[in-house]
Every structure is written in structure tokens, then in C-alpha cells.
């Protein structure tokens, strides 16, 4: 039970620290007046505060279990597992939408690119649903006293499809970005530019997701308390990635806007396409 609480506290601490470190940028870019709701702001709020909510819930529930039970009831374990699954999938979907909007804006809101992105996301979502259905019996499985399933998931077909689908999805999204930015001199500039931020942040996100998927693989074979740390750390990673991608791109966009005396860099659809290099789709 101590491991469960420690994992939850670690996840909350990291998420709160990241929120504190980005508080000034968040206040300037998200909460500035006059406040206007946009898709990008909504995605930021979801990414940041859904992550915080999940972490606080984990801590509250872990503390309750520690002081209330010696062995956690099976129904509580099953409901908590369902909550963790929904939390991770919600944050992952939010991150997917943020990444797709970047590509959509980069390609000057091309209809063809929009259709490709919708198709990719539909296929990715189908793989997720199939995996959840495939492993649905785990919600009825027996759990140990620390509320961890006594059955090893192992790298079966369902989990393998989920991991491969996510890695393939991320690869395609970042390939679309690289196709547009790779040959532009500004991409390799030491001074942050829109294209360099797009490319570097894309690499960081891809690396973080890849590590998270490998953690899933390792945790699927482990029956001890170590896998309890995976979900809080993944929640932190997804929340941090989504919010920082928006902040960094918007900060860079505002600097470009100031230099070129353009206005309205945060549109109601996505980042204004005028902030991106002009090239054929």
C-alpha cells in the first residue's frame, strides 16, 4: 500500500512542479484578458488540468486505501483500474488532437491533410477500442492486497497492437511535419523559430511516447509494485507534453507576430497558418 501512495504522490509532485514552472507563460497566453475561448486554449486546459485532476484523485484514493483497508476490496480495484484507463486514454487523445492541429496548420489547413489526419486518428482509436475489448476480462480479474492484478498481461496480441499502433501513429504525424520543415534553414537555427520548435518538440514527444510504450511492455511482465509507478508517470508525461507543446509554439508564434506586426496568432481553429513557412502542400 505504501508503494501505491508513493507512486501517486510522485506523479502529483511532478505535475505540480511542471505547472509551477509554466505558470507565467500560462497566465500570459491562456488567461490574458480579454479571455476568449478557442480550441487551442481548451486543449491546453484539458491537457494541464485533467492531468492534475487524475493525479490528485490517485493520491486521495491511495491515502484512503492506506488508512481504511489492509486488503483493498476487489470492486474498488476494478473501478480504479477503469479510471486509470480512461484517464490515460483521455490525455492521450488530447495530445493526439494537439499534434494533428499542428500538422493541419502547417499544411495551410489543407482538406486532403485533414482527411488523412481524421483517417489516421480513426484507425488509432479503433486499435485502442479493440485492445480494451480484448483485455476486458482483466477488470474481472483477482487483485492483490495492493490493488494490482495477480495476472500478468504479458505482450499478447491486444497490447502489441496498441503499442505498435501508437508508435506508428506518432511516426506518421512527425513524418508529415518533417516533410515540410526538414529542408528549411530555419529548422536548424540555434535561435528558436516556428519550424525548429515544431521539429524539436515533435522529437521530444515521440521519444517520450516511445519510452512510455516500452514501460507498458516492461510492466506487463512485472507482478510486483514497480508497475504502480507507470500510470502516474505516464499521466505526468502526457499532461506535460500537451501543455508545453502549446505554450512553446504559441510563444514562438507571438514573437514572430511581433516581428512581422501581425495580429491574432491564436485562431479559433488552430495556430494561424501565417505563422508557418509558405510552401506547397
Automatic annotation (TrEMBL):
InterPro entries: DUF6533. Signal peptide: none annotated. The chain crosses the membrane at residues 113-136, 157-177, 202-221, 228-247. Residues 12-52 form the DUF6533 domain. Pfam families: DUF6533. This is DUF6533 domain-containing protein. Keywords: Membrane, Transmembrane, Transmembrane helix. The lineage of its organism: Eukaryota, Fungi, Dikarya, Basidiomycota, Agaricomycotina.
Amino acid at each position: 500500500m505504501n508503494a501505491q501512495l508513493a507512486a501517486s504522490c510522485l506523479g502529483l509532485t511532478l505535475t505540480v512542479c511542471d505547472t509551477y514552472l509554466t505558470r507565467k507563460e500560462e497566465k500570459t497566453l491562456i488567461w490574458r484578458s480579454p479571455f476568449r475561448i478557442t480550441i487551442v486554449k481548451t486543449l491546453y486546459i484539458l491537457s494541464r488540468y485533467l492531468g492534475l485532476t487524475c493525479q490528485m484523485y490517485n493520491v486521495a484514493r491511495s491515502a484512503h486505501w492506506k488508512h481504511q483497508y489492509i486488503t483493498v476490496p476487489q470492486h474498488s480495484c476494478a473501478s480504479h483500474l477503469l479510471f486509470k484507463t480512461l484517464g490515460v486514454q483521455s490525455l492521450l487523445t488530447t495530445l493526439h488532437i494537439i499534434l494533428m492541429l499542428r500538422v493541419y496548420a502547417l499544411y495551410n489547413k489543407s482538406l486532403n491533410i485533414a482527411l488523412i489526419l481524421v483517417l489516421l486518428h480513426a484507425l488509432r482509436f479503433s486499435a485502442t477500442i479493440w485492445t480494451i475489448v480484448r483485455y476486458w476480462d482483466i477488470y474481472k480479474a483477482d487483485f492483490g492486497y495492493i490493488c494490482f492484478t495477480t495476472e500478468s498481461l504479458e505482450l499478447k496480441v491486444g497490447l502489441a497492437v496498441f503499442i505498435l499502433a501508437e508508435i506508428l501513429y506518432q511516426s506518421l504525424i512527425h513524418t508529415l511535419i518533417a516533410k515540410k520543415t526538414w529542408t528549411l534553414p530555419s529548422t536548424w537555427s540555434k535561435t528558436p523559430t516556428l519550424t525548429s520548435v515544431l521539429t524539436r518538440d515533435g522529437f521530444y514527444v515521440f521519444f517520450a511516447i516511445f519510452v512510455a510504450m516500452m514501460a507498458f511492455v516492461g510492466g506487463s511482465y512485472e507482478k510486483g509494485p514497480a508497475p504502480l509507478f507507470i500510470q502516474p508517470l505516464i499521466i505526468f508525461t502526457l499532461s506535460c507534453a500537451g501543455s508545453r507543446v502549446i505554450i512553446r509554439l504559441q510563444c514562438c508564434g507571438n514573437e514572430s507576430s511581433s516581428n512581422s506586426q501581425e495580429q491574432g496568432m491564436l485562431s479559433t481553429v488552430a495556430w494561424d497558418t501565417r505563422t508557418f513557412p509558405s510552401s506547397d502542400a
